[in-house]
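Holo model, S-adenosyl-L-homocysteine. Inputs:
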Amino acid sequence: MSWNAEQKMRLLFALRSKGVTEKAVLTAMENIDRGLFVQGLFADRAYEDTPLPIICGQTISQPSIVGLMTQALEVGPRDKVLELGTGSGYQAAILSQLARRVYTVDRFRRLVAQAQDVFDQLGLTNIITFTADGSYGLPDHAPFDRIIVTAAAEDPPGPLLAQLRIGGIMVLPVGQSDAVQSLIKVRRTETGFEYDELLKVRFVPLLEGLGRE
Ligand code: SAH
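Output:
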């Protein structure tokens, strides 16, 4: 069963009221049924603007945060995007509507397999999944036009900055893992990096190595 008109309308209203106003981003979010990415106990809350638990002790992000991050990323149809932290796959699915290709990495094999199943079900063939420690980026596929990190590090990981194309944008939460973090937008220029702080957020921490599941 897919989401109904009322669930869709409520979610889009929540997104707009939190500042997600970009038409292309709203359309992408209207095209992707979040219910497919939330299994088990919390499935009936999939259309609320709230983060929810998923397998492997992780979380699917709050829809308005997904929208604001996607909007800040300024994705264009020719862009090659790297997402670090596949989780449920929801953010990658939204990005797949806007970008040429999405490379998404998670340290849990189980999460990657589950997300891949949903991508297959939706026919999202421009998403490529990887099980790896994403802190090192994907050097074989770099550079990227856009990079989005959905787990918090203390600082932007050096390898990711190095894999961002000149003119490219990276959006990521930074800060102590269990305290308040800031969502940062980084632009790579000819001469260096420009940083903007967007809003306070709370993400699960970026961890080292592969997960056990
Ligand atoms: N974008 C996701 C939410 C991700 S939650 C969604 O739309 O549902 C953050 C994810 O980052 C978790 O799944 C966690 O396993 C992953 N993660 C944390 N550290 C990582 C690392 N070093 N490399 C790859 N993935 C990592």
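The radius of gyration is 16 Å. DSSP finds six helices and nine strands in the chain.
Archived with the compound record.
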